[in-house]
């Protein structure tokens, strides 16, 4: 993963599906998504236990969300072992980027996503990287 992959993801991705986005303001997923929303990105919450987060309709899955939204980036706030099916969905819906937050790494799923043409970033905070590149 290079700085150019991070720059490419941030430059080309304006609609971000956040897998595991919590409706609780004290959670990292909420804070990161709110920050990106405040900086002009459209947030698509993926949380089967929520109906709305940050004023946006929440969807149970990426596949469901992609029926209604064009998703550029899939940002994952899930455990590393949960990533393979999420990566497969990101590929299937035609996302441009798969971003795994700090502490989330799955090399096999990342390689599959890269092979399918997605830009992949692992173990990095979207908000921190965005702040550094502004």
UniProtKB/TrEMBL annotation:
PANTHER family given in the database record: COA-BINDING DOMAIN-CONTAINING PROTEIN, CYTOPLASMIC PROTEIN-RELATED
CoA-binding domain sequence ranges: 10-104
Protein name: CoA-binding protein
One matching Pfam family: CoA_binding_2
Entry-linked InterPro entries: CoA-bd (IPR003781), NAD(P)-bd_dom_sf (IPR036291)
SMART domains the record matches: CoA_binding
Top-rank taxon: Bacteria
